[in-house]
TrEMBL record:
One matching Pfam family: CD20
Organism field: Streptococcus wuxiensis
Membrane topology: Multi-pass membrane protein
Classification via InterPro entries: BamE-like, CD20-like
Protein name (record): CD20-like domain-containing protein
Length: 186
């Protein structure tokens, strides 16, 4: 057997070791993955050049680069799962804070104002917000000389429940109820 052509094997070992060290660090593991791919290519080139010679360094470099790729991908999967779980915990916490507080009695107690009189006699928007908190969704529309505000409260639990209220803006800037729709209230 001839002497091993060492340059590609040595480069594969050095780059594979660098990639292996960085494969555990978030953010750096993505760069380590690229370095490990380069080390794998150099290791394979070293194996091909030394088909009839010793291949010890090229084999070591190739093994290090494959291990680096596996660790980099594995750690990235773990970090992504941790981030996903943290995001779900945040959403769950926000949803728990914004519980659906409507009952059928509360909904029925809302007074719809006269739609032709811009909601005169209807429940005030501010009173609804004080009692039930911020809605799940809110939008405002303007048509000609009228401005309407539509708010919705939607349950996040197993039973689908919702309350949608439409308010008409008064000359003093307040909003009065002109329409109410509920679904699933008990």
């Amino acid at each position: 057997m001839k002497q091993e052509n060492k340059i590609f094997g040595i480069l594969a070992i050095v780059l594979g070791a660098i990639a292996l060290l960085g494969s555990w660090i978030p953010g750096i593991n993505q760069i380590s993955f690229l370095i490990a791919i380069l080390a794998l290519i150099l290791g394979i080139v070293g194996l091909c050049l030394n088909r009839k010679n010793k291949k010890v360094l090229a084999i070591i470099g190739t093994v290090l680069s494959v291990a680096s790729i596996v660790f980099a991908v594995g750690s990235q999967v773990i970090y992504n799962q941790i981030q996903k779980n943290a995001a779900q915990d945040t959403v769950s916490t926000n949803q728990a804070e914004e519980e659906f507080t409507w009952t059928k009695e509360q909904f029925d107690a809302l007074k719809q104002g006269d739609i032709l009189q811009r909601g005169a006699g209807g429940t005030n928007y501010d009173d609804v917000i004080k009692e039930h908190g911020q809605p799940s969704k809110e939008s405002t529309t303007k048509k000609k000389d009228r401005e309407n505000k539509v708010i919705s409260y939607v349950s996040t639990g197993n039973n689908i429940q919702s309350v949608t209220l439409t308010f008409d803006k008064q000359e003093d800037g307040s909003f009065l109820l002109i329409s109410k729709v509920a679904m699933g209230l008990e």
